[in-house]
């Protein structure tokens, strides 16, 4: 009997929770020009370029309140561990010269390179290594903590660079990661 009355007894409580919901007014709205293909969340997806200038995969970035989540999938990367860093310029056009146009690492913290470096690391630009397999290629998700999309995506954009070797997370300036194998330009 008590179980049957319990839902009925809750009716006054549920009714008390009701009320008017505020309605947003458009009187103070400001028009904003947004490109037709713009993602309202700020997410971006770009191709990953290999050293021969062809597309070898895709990378995406999703902004958040404390940094950015970057997902990538690429083929043609040799099996093994590879360093990955965010670079200052979103330019991968000089693939035949090793993606040097992407500049050096983003370094908003003004510190030395390396996640294990006692003198700090490049906030939002130094990542753990990624592993590539022959079957699946290079697949990963990275978090650029402390680096907001607005900071990275300035007038000349930014790039995700994949290196030929793993990053030892201490050696200056790039952790011994070697040549740049792949580049994803975000603008």
Automatic annotation (TrEMBL):
Question: What's a single GO MF annotation on this record?
Answer: metal ion binding
UniProt keyword list: Signal
Extent of the signal sequence:
1-29
Q: Which GO terms describe its biological process?
A: superoxide metabolic process
Keyword flag Signal: yes
PROSITE patterns listed in its UniProt record: PROKAR_LIPOPROTEIN, SOD_CU_ZN_1
Coiled-coil portions:
none
Residue span, Superoxide dismutase copper/zinc binding domain: 67-185
Q: Which InterPro entries match?
A: SOD-like_Cu/Zn_dom_sf, SOD_Cu/Zn_BS, SOD_Cu_Zn_dom
Q: Which Gene3D superfamilies match?
A: Superoxide dismutase, copper/zinc binding domain (2.60.40.200)
Q: Give the record's family classification.
A: Belongs to the Cu-Zn superoxide dismutase family.
UniProt-recorded name of the protein: Superoxide dismutase family protein
What organism does the UniProt record list as the source? Answer: Parvularcula mediterranea
Organism ancestry: Bacteria, Pseudomonadati, Pseudomonadota, Alphaproteobacteria, Parvularculales
């Amino acid at each position: 009997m008590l179980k049957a009355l319990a839902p009925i007894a809750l009716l006054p409580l549920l009714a008390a929770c009701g009320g008017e919901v505020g309605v947003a007014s458009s009187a103070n709205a400001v028009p904003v020009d947004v490109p037709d293909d713009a993602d309202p969340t700020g997410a971006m997806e770009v191709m990953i370029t290999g050293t021969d200038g062809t597309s070898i995969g895709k990378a995406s970035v999703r902004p958040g309140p404390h940094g950015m989540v970057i997902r990538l999938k690429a083929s043609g990367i040799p099996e093994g561990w590879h360093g990955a860093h965010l670079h200052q310029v979103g330019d991968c056009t000089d693939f035949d010269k090793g993606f040097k146009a992407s500049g050096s690492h983003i370094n908003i913290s003004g510190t030395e390179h390396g996640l294990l470096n006692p003198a700090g690391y490049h906030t939002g630009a130094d990542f753990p290594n990624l592993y590539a397999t022959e079957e699946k290629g290079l697949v990963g998700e990275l978090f650029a903590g402390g680096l907001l999309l607005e900071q990275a995506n300035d007038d000349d954009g930014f790039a995700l660079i994949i290196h030929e070797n793993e990053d030892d997370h201490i050696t200056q300036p790039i952790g011994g990661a070697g040549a740049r194998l792949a580049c994803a330009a975000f603008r």
